[in-house]
Specification:
By secondary structure, this protein is of the alpha+beta class. The protein folds into 2 domains: 88 residues; 108 residues, Beta-Lactamase. It has 9 helices and 5 strands. It has a 5-stranded antiparallel beta sheet. α1 runs antiparallel to α2 and α1 packs parallel to α3. The N terminus and C terminus are likely disordered.
């Protein structure tokens, strides 16, 4: 086991080792072999810790680490001690990659690439994992369906519009704070994303104290695990720009 976060090597062998050992553990649990369960559990813990210690450099690797811990959380949901342990490890990864001191803070296309990563699940295939990732981002992030409705909004996005995330689901992007003069740029950005393109655009929203703020955003397509484009990912930077400087 590594003494600190690993910077070298390949995450995939670690992922496969943890997955295999976990399959064996689940089989032992189902068969009621308590002695084998104890042995496999002791062997699995160091592998999980080594997998978490691996310092990912690509969005797909970050996604893979979080995906595996999410799977373990679901399987061990009835065991409080396991849930606490896995949650603590999940917190380590979130702090490392998305926290105030995180070394990797994916936004825009990087968020989309994480969601589109193959062969791993895209949004909708693993809702718990994707919400963990998107809710941890400092940027305002939304997922929009092909009929221009919010499928998801992280807390930062909802706060900008002075709403709760759950209140935005199913609502049109054109009826929640988006200024009429920004309708065309928003529709164009979404249509480009639905065609499989990524890029930048400018937009205006009305938020707290009824103040209009202008933002530069990123758009990218959201693909299913089979490659079909199901919607778009929008990301708005923390840095807003002057309304007077926003291009019409």
């Amino acid at each position: 086991m590594s003494s600190g976060p690993s910077r070298d090597g390949n995450l995939l062998p670690l992922f496969e080792a943890v997955t295999l050992k976990n399959v064996q553990l689940q089989q032992a649990i189902r068969s009621g072999n308590d002695r084998l369960v104890a042995v496999l559990d002791r062997e699995l813990d160091p592998l999980i810790c080594e997998m978490v210690a691996y310092r990912a450099s690509e969005p797909e690797e970050i996604y893979l680490q979080l995906q595996l811990l999410t799977k373990l959380l679901r399987e061990d949901a009835d065991d409080r001690s396991c849930v606490l342990r896995h949650t603590a490890l999940m917190s380590i990864l979130i702090e490392r990659y998305f926290g105030p001191r995180g070394l990797a803070k994916p936004t825009g296309e990087a968020v989309a690439s994480m969601l589109e990563a193959k062969p791993y699940a895209s949004f909708g295939d693993d809702d718990m994992l994707n919400e963990v990732i998107l809710n941890s981002l400092p940027d305002r992030v939304a997922v929009v369906t092909r009929d221009y409705r919010y499928l998801f909004a992280n807390p930062a996005m909802a706060d900008m519009l002075r709403m709760r995330p759950i209140e935005m689901i199913g609502r049109s992007v054109f009826e929640l704070g988006l200024q009429p003069e920004a309708f065309t740029s928003m529709r164009d950005a979404l249509d480009h994303a639905f065609r499989g393109e990524s890029g930048d655009f400018a937009s205006r929203f009305i938020g707290g104290n009824h103040m209009v703020s202008a933002f530069y955003g990123r758009f990218a397509p959201l693909r299913s695990s089979h490659g079909a484009i199901n919607g778009a990912v929008l990301s708005f930077s923390e840095s807003n720009v002057s309304v007077n400087n926003l291009a019409a």
